[in-house]
Amino acid sequence: MKKFNLIDDLGFVTTGVEEYQGEKNYYSTGSIKEFVNNAEGKFSYKNRPSRANRCVQEGDVLQARMQNTQKAILIDDNYSGSLFSTGFFQLRPPRNLVDSKYIYYCLQTKWFQNLKDSLCSGATQKSINDKKLKEINFFLPPLPEQKRIVAKLDKAFAEIGSADLTLRNNVKNANAIFEKKIEEYFVDNIFNAEVYPLSKFSTYFNGLTYSPKDVADSGVIVLRSSNIQNGEMHYADIKRVKKNIKEKLFVKEDDILLCSRNGSKRLIGKSSLIGKIKEPMTFGTFMMIVRSDCNHYLQWFFKSKLFKKQISQGEDNMINQITRYMLDDVSLPLPSEDLQKKVNENLKDLDYLSRKLIKIYSSKMANFEKLKQAILKQELKSEAV
What we know:
alpha+beta
């Protein structure tokens, strides 16, 4: 085994992009998903985002710097020449000594992720800086042995990946069935209900503006996007403020909480019906409340693709924010109260069954991940120190 320092010996690439012609795809940390990576967009050298300050080559290995974020990516021909965020650190391993895919697998191990997380710092979003990365060393076998281990891991993970993909397709199918049922009511309008503008029967408004000095251990709970998880309200992560709050900005039972702005575009539009309220709560300025007498029916519309399609004017790209003027342009079928109740009961039952199935599938997928980690631990003897 030979010692390799992450900064000094593994081809650490500093930030900076040489001027280029035309446009390049840009990938933020949020762009990188487990199976699908979607570029934030194409940008010229002059109009690229400030964080788009890495350019990658085939064989480079990247890892997100943020704490509790396992996003390692091996650059292949599809991504070569693209821009990546400075939210990643970037390695270009010397090919005569190190197999890039071996390092890629090392970065996915629990021991590396735990070490990286322990070295992260920061007041809000903790991440690992270059100084701390220099404290990480790997002990790697000779190159031929690295290649042998990579071939063995590739074969094992291909088999696991095939079974895992089947489960993920089952999850997609469950979601598709649920979405299709929503479409029957809101797109196909199977009850031939009259279509009304959203503004005709509801009100909506943004939340409380506050500063860090308003945050306190005791005070009024401020609901944020993190309080919406998988379409339901969760209160494990709460923030409280002490300041004067207008009566209008206190949430009520059966309000719909909607994320209207967020640094991550994929979170914009997520929503949940607020249930029983145990204590006074308000909501942040990046959120909206939708208030009406038919929110048990309306909640399903906000979970549908139809809603996002209307506010994005039919385009598939992600939107930057949701404004009340955008909601003014939204319209949907509004059947009788009895039919609204029927729709809610039907979708509530189907939602319960879908969640139950997805929970079963997710548990099995988690077991696949445990199996992968066990294989990585067995095959990779190059623990970081």
